[in-house]
UniProtKB/TrEMBL annotation:
One of its GO terms (molecular function) is formylglycine-generating oxidase activity. The lineage of its organism: Bacteria, Pseudomonadati, Pseudomonadota, Gammaproteobacteria, Methylococcales. Pfam families: FGE-sulfatase (PF03781), nSTAND1 (PF20703). This is Uncharacterized protein. Residues 759-1038 form the Sulfatase-modifying factor enzyme-like domain.
Length: 1041
């Protein structure tokens, strides 16, 4: 009986689907079309469909015992002749003949089920005067995959006979009126043709019914939903997240590409497919929402029984085998194995897939296979550690060669070369599938059809405007998706998407940036300040400056730890914790959570805001306690101006960070030889990178910290205070402090360019010097002692540095002659050139200076500072080094335990005398100290005291690198490092005349190339005043006014 409609009720049509089993994919697509078509904007509320198919998931046929299958279908669902439309789809076979009398052919043979269905419908169509039911015949014309070889003669002949039978049937169809034969190449073409043909038939029926009076008593009750109940609830536009298999109902526009992937998989030889495309081309969605649902629907023979899994190489860290094993955590536990154990096995033997296949395909048909969908394959090169990367490549190759496994990867086109370089060239040669940006027709499907299923409508012309704005440029797809999602959020109560909302959202090109800026602007300044701290963990930048998103543990972003460690050194009371951070459980304690990790509430607030805005996405596996966070789509790196600018500005820093990891691993693999260590010359780059990315060195792995060495000046200055710090380390610290900008007072220059001297007050006292018979023999006879009362003065904490001396040379020597301030008792000849220093760093002592250089410097500095600066006499020098006796106070400055309250002596002065009496006099005062720090010194036991020959450095360090050798007066480097010129002559210590006379002058303190006994504070040495030596420098004294 014909189906009609009233003004209040839509036209209801029953559609019979007939087809053999080789076009099961088309059957699923036909059901999809029937399910979606009532929501087409032109048909909404006007038509409903009821699919009549024996395998319909909601209304399939009941198979009666004792009846042939075809008879059961007829009894359950009715004959094709009883339906409104009949659809027949064929490819390589018609099915098996039904040897029953009712299915006999005139020639004595028997019809197959499909043949009978066709003839039953055509006879009814002719009997109704060609009105009902129209018969739509579709024929797939591409060559079917031959599943048997010509060597299997009988099977091969049977297959050819099936194809010939189909051809004969179609030829008969083409000679009969009432049939509409339609050839197609791929299933997506069939889907679109069927959709259009059904729309045409519906419009014709509606037009016809419009001219007839309503027949309310003959209307079939619709079995599908009305236009008031959308088939899709919620937003049909997913913004920046990819479509998954759960979103297949609203996934449109990639039918042809899905068919092409299926065609490759139909050939058993194709075990590996790499979907290659630009960022934002829809690679993940194509496989996840396009291909996989079709496979699970039986698009390939037996594919409905396949097991499948999707993961990314860096999903759970830098080991892709852990990501893979986590997918089957429950199954593994059922056989007594942990995911970690299984991952370790695969890492050691990536080619052994038997255990994996048995585990996954247990309880499935023998024909079942395992599909591995490895999404975001570029993470193999941006996240995965080196020792896992090649093992995982071997695993992929082994899986691709298995008869029970299929591998599909999605990879950004700009990482294709790296895939080739890492051994995937052979599988890529036959398995690459380049994915282009969708064309205008596909974009139209992506925009209009999901909206229709959700009951949405565009204001007149808005859909065309949006499509025009999107264009065809690579990367436009995520921008379009986000703009549509924002448009949905601003829909009217009736579900109308308006121009006003589209303009307000920033259109296609501006929607992401405008939305991100608006969300960010609402945050407090202290929350905004964590921008770098958060995003540095969410991005990898390659050598070309191209950003790739990185998945990070939420604990890395909400505590002071970085991707490498779990400890925040800002909170020393917070212990290390192996328990991962549980998101959103903030607790109410102090700076640390209950598990010991300090919580950064500002970073958490930023993450929450961006996640709520769908710019970041969180993930927490049900079988894993670790929550992760990542950028919703890489389009955010391009479309949010603030983030794009930050990526550009820090691209070099990200590259350097990755380079450090690679070079540190190389250094570690090559016995950690010094020649492979990070060079001091590049330490500034590291310091700048840490500053730009808001990192601290302790956030790097211990091995990388050792490889880099010290970076932060504050940490370096703490390190030299430690006795365990080696000579080499102290030398390195000195060089690095210079390159980074030595922050210590007394080392460099003032803002006005003059030397920044750190003057230490030296209290006056009685000093005795010893004159021995042989300067080169420390135990030679003392032939004379001289005692002098020395008044208070000031002495520079450090020897004059190279930076300070070069300031003098720059001002007083024009490259050809000296221009010294007037008043110097001697003149330097024009031929007298400045010294050539061995030192190359500004905070190292100015070496290779003779006595005249030193005196000239002091004279210049006196003129520039406005007070007298000169070389110390050796009495003054010794007083500063080991102290003397203050006759006025009764205080013995040689004993650090008997100093007054203003004494600046630091704790390194480890005196051993008895305590002072109340009057300050100590009858048991110890003998004069031999070194600034004490009486005795064993360089092997106390190497931290100074840099002498025993250090084996063979060079001077920066000044102040040995605070363990500080004097009682707080002066450094008075022992070792460099010899220091004194004002007086050697032969007559009382002679402090400044002249050009050639009398040898005293040098004190020893140096880096002299033994410990030369570094004694009482040891007197001499050098002719014109002598320049790598081991000789000087320091300045300031006369007390």
């Amino acid at each position: 009986m014909p189906t009609t409609a009233t003004a209040k009720q839509p036209l209801h049509l029953r559609v019979f689907l007939g087809s053999p089993g080789d076009v099961n994919d088309e059957r699923q697509l036909a059901l999809k079309v029937l399910n979606q078509l009532p929501y087409d904007p032109l048909l909404r509320g006007r038509v409903t469909f009821e699919a009549v198919a024996w395998d319909h998931p909601q209304a399939g046929a009941v198979m009666w015992a004792g009846l042939p299958a075809q008879e059961s279908v007829i009894r359950s669902l009715g004959k094709p002749a009883d339906c409104d439309i009949v659809v027949i789809c064929l490819w390589s076979r018609l099915g098996s003949p039904i040897a029953q009398p009712d299915y006999a052919k005139p020639d004595g043979g028997f019809y197959t089920g499909t043949e009978w269905e066709y003839h039953n419908a055509v006879l009814a169509f002719e009997a109704s005067g060609r009105q009902r039911p129209p018969v739509l015949v579709y024929h797939r014309v591409d060559e079917p995959v031959c599943k048997v070889s010509p060597k299997q003669k009988q099977a091969y002949l049977d297959q050819l006979a099936n194809v010939e039978q189909v051809d004969n049937f179609l030829q008969a169809c083409r000679t009969r009126d009432g049939s509409i034969p339609n050839d197609y190449n791929i299933p997506s073409d069939f889907e679109e043709a069927l959709r259009q043909h059904l729309k045409d038939i519906v419009r014709q029926r509606l037009d016809s019914l419009a001219t007839q009076p309503a027949q309310t008593d003959s209307v079939s009750k619709p079995k599908s939903v009305s236009n008031h109940d959308p088939i899709w609830t919620g937003s049909p536009f997913l913004g920046l997240r990819p479509f998954t298999n759960k979103d297949s109902l609203i996934f449109f526009g990639r039918g042809r590409e899905t068919d092409e992937l299926l065609a490759r998989l139909r050939d058993p030889k194709h075990r590996f497919i790499a979907v290659v495309g630009a960022s934002g081309s829809g690679k993940s969605s194509l496989v996840w929402a396009g291909l996989i649902p079709r496979l699970l629907g039986g698009a390939l023979q037996g594919s409905a029984d396949w097991a499948w899994v999707r993961f990314t190489p860096g999903e759970l860290g830098d080991n892709p085998f852990i990501s893979l094993a986590a997918c089957w955590k429950t199954a593994l536990e059922s056989v007594g194995q942990t995911a970690r154990e299984f991952a370790d096995e695969l890492l050691l033997a990536p080619g052994r897939l038997d255990g994996l296949v048995r585990l996954v395909l247990a309880n499935r048909p023998d024909s079942a296979e395992l599909l591995l969908f490895i999404d975001q394959f570029e993470e193999l090169f941006t996240v995965v550690k080196d020792d896992c990367r090649q093992a995982f490549v071997r695993f992929v190759l082994a899986a691709s060669g298995s008869s029970k496994v299929r591998v599909i990867v999605s990879v950004r086109a700009d990482f294709y070369a790296q895939c080739v370089e890492h051994g995937l060239a052979d599988v890529l040669r036959t398995g690459s599938y380049p994915l282009a940006a969708p064309g205008l027709g596909a974009l139209q499907q992506m925009v209009i059809r999901p909206a229709a299923l959700a009951g949405l409508a565009f204001e007149q012309g808005l859909d065309e405007t949006i499509l025009g704005d999107a264009g065809k440029e690579p990367g436009a797809l995520p921008l379009l998706a986000f703009a549509l999602e924002r448009l949905y959020q601003k829909r009217t109560a009736a579900g109308l998407l308006t121009y006003a909302a589209y303009e307000e959202s920033g259109k296609v090109q501006g929607s992401i940036g405008q939305h991100a800026d608006a969300v960010f602007a609402k945050l407090a300044p202290e929350v905004q300040a964590t921008f770098t701290e958060v995003f540095r963990e969410l991005v990898e930048v390659d050598e070309r400056g191209e950003p790739t998103r990185r998945r990070a543990k939420l604990s890395e972003l909400t505590t002071g730890s970085s991707r490498h460690t779990g400890r925040d050194r800002r909170y020393p009371d917070c212990r290390d914790a192996s328990e991962p951070f549980r998101p959103w459980s903030l607790g109410s304690g102090g700076p640390c959570r209950n598990d010991g990790e300090p919580l950064n509430l500002n970073a958490l607030t930023l993450i929450n805001a961006l996640t709520k805005a769908r710019l970041l996405v969180t993930d927490k596996r049900e079988d894993d306690d670790t929550a992760t966070i990542e950028v919703a789509h890489e389009a955010l790196f391009r479309s949010w101006g603030k983030l794009a600018d930050w990526v550009t500005q820090t691209a070099d820093d990200h590259r350097l960070r990755r380079q450090i990891t690679q070079l540190a691993a190389y250094w570690d693999a090559h016995q950690r030889r010094d020649e492979h260590r990070w060079p001091d010359e590049r330490i500034v780059e590291v310091a700048q990178m840490l500053a730009h990315l808001g990192l601290r060195l302790e956030q790097f792995p211990a091995m990388e910290q050792e490889f880099l060495g010290p970076v932060d000046p504050a940490d370096m200055l703490q390190a030299i205070e430690l006795p365990k710090t080696s000579h080499e380390r102290r030398a390195m610290i000195g060089v690095r402090l210079d390159r980074l900008g030595d922050p210590r007072k007394g080392v460099g220059l003032r803002e006005d360019g003059l030397p920044d001297m750190d003057w230490m007050p030296i209290q006056g006292g009685e000093v005795t010097i010893e004159i021995r018979a042989d300067v080169n023999k420390p135990d030679s006879e003392i032939i004379k002692t001289l005692t002098r009362e020395v008044g208070a003065f000031q002495l520079a904490r450090y020897p004059v540095t190279l930076a300070q001396f070069q300031a003098f040379v720059r001002e007083c020597h024009d490259g050809q002659q000296w221009r010294l301030p007037p008043g110097l008792p001697f003149n330097l000849p024009d031929s007298y050139s400045p010294p050539k220093h061995r030192a190359r760093h500004g905070n190292h002592p100015a070496d290779s200076v003779n006595w005249y250089d030193a005196v000239s410097f002091c004279h210049w500095l006196s003129e520039r500072l406005g007070f007298e600066v000169r070389l110390p006499t050796e009495f003054e020098w010794q007083l500063a080094a080991i102290g003397g006796i203050n006759r006025h106070s009764g205080m013995d400055r040689r004993n650090p335990d008997c100093r007054d309250a203003t004494d600046p002596s630091p704790p390194w002065s480890l005196g051993s005398g008895d305590p002072c009496r109340n009057d300050g006099k100590n009858p048991d005062s110890p003998p004069p100290k031999t070194y600034p720090w004490g009486q005795d010194w064993n360089p092997a036991e106390e190497p931290w005291r100074t840099n002498s020959y025993e250090s084996d450095l063979g060079r001077a360090t920066a000044v102040g690198m040995y605070p363990g050798g500080v004097s009682v007066s707080g002066v450094l480097d008075l022992s070792g490092t460099v010899w220091e010129w004194c004002l007086n002559t050697y032969d007559d210590p009382n002679d402090v005349t400044v002249s050009t006379a050639g009398a040898a002058r005293v040098v004190r303190g020893g140096s880096w190339d002299f033994h410990a006994w030369n570094c004694r504070s009482a040891y007197r040495n001499y050098v002719v005043p014109v002598g320049r030596d790598y081991g000789t420098g000087f320091r300045c004294a300031r006369v007390q006014s």
